[in-house]
Amino acid sequence: MGQALSCGEREESGLFGAVGKGEVERLEAMVDADPSVLEETSGYGRLSALHVAASNGRIEVVSALLDLSLNPDILNRYKQTPLMLAAMHGKISCVQKLIQAGANILMFDSLHGRTCLHYAAYYGHSDCLQAILSAAHSTPVSDSWGFARFVNIRDGGGATPLHLAARQSRPECVHILLDSGALVCASTGGYGYLGSTPLHLAARGGSLECVRELLAWGADRHQVDSSGRIPYTVALKHKHRVCAALLDPSSAEPLVWPSPLKFISELNPEAKTLLETALKEANMEREKALLKETVYSLPSLDSIVGADDTASEASDVELCCICFDQLCTIEVRPCGHQMCAHCILALCCHKKPNPTAACTTAPVCPFCRSSITQLVVAEIETSNDLELEFSPSNSKPRRSRKSNFSEGSSSFKSLSAMGSFTRLGGISPGKIAAECNVVIDKP
């Protein structure tokens, strides 16, 4: 940001030498001898001792300075706080300590009008980003601004943290922000090209992971910037062929994470991981078909999500009654019926979420037609009468690697065979196959 973080420019006083080396006792002795020493600054940026300690990750010095009642929101020449510099350099322990000491997360610098949230997103420090977002739930920010407004806070150029993370190719930060309520189709002001969405910026930077993440959260491939360009055009202009293949508006729509559904927002971490993995698998199958004619080849699904075929082909485990392909990993509440994560996801993604709609109609259980109010991880019962809690790390035993989704469609096509569910009488097709020694192939 146009400033050095050197600790040696004021070595004659010894203050910044002690800060840079983490010599807490020496620092405290200097303050006891002359309390005004804390008013000294370093370099053209006028960095205080707390700025230097926070940016260098000297947590002991940060704690000592805060214990001396030093203002946690002290400003340098560019109105940057120590929290901003700690977030910029990814010093998570210092970020947490400053927040704990009451640092204001809603302060703007004079360089680009950015907050500590912008800094964490821009430089890709997902742990710092998560810490700041967590603090926003319990600080006065949530009362005065509201959490949703804070997540989508704009800098001086009209860019939200999501815009910055997408442009800088920070997929982990993109995911955290989207999961926290960032607007996937928000347009910029003066940042980048006027009217750019996060998808435009990810296409410009050629970040395939960011493009995937944004599309999976409902980013509009047809939205234009102020120059009338869609993300596909931007990707082609910057010669990002793979991104362009995924962004081509004439290609199949990807599956979209059904975030508007209430029970999706209330998923526990294990169930959420299973569904996110299923979403990634389904969209990877779509990508494979789209990229066949490019020089780029995608890695196998096994390398993406990790294969763990602990259940053998002949094991008497209960397969999903809809696809006959994968284990029942998700249980529907309150009825208790079980399905695999892929079929649950297809049921929830039957229609692409409409951002203009006030609410989304919740899907019903395909077996009993009762409303779904909750999804939990199912318990698997094996032939050895052992009950195993299904975890995301053991989510892959299956009979085949074929996707349950047809190319270019998120329709839940297996639901058309509703009559077969009634005839089965609740007996698992996997168990029927085992008893009859018949191999059931997916049609």
TrEMBL record:
One of its GO terms (molecular function) is zinc ion binding. It is an enzyme of class 2 (transferase). Residues 403-412 have a biased composition (Low complexity). ANK repeats lie at residues 45-77, 78-110, 112-144, 157-189, 194-226. It catalyses: S-ubiquitinyl-[E2 ubiquitin-conjugating enzyme]-L-cysteine + [acceptor protein]-L-lysine = [E2 ubiquitin-conjugating enzyme]-L-cysteine + N(6)-ubiquitinyl-[acceptor protein]-L-lysine. SMART domains: ANK (SM00248). Residues 320-369 form the RING-type domain. Its EC number is 2.3.2.27. Pathway: Protein modification; protein ubiquitination. It holds the Pfam family RING_XB3-XBAT31. Residues 389-412 are annotated as: Disordered. Keywords: ANK repeat, Metal-binding, Repeat, Transferase, Ubl conjugation pathway, Zinc, Zinc-finger. This is RING-type E3 ubiquitin transferase. It comes from Carya illinoinensis.
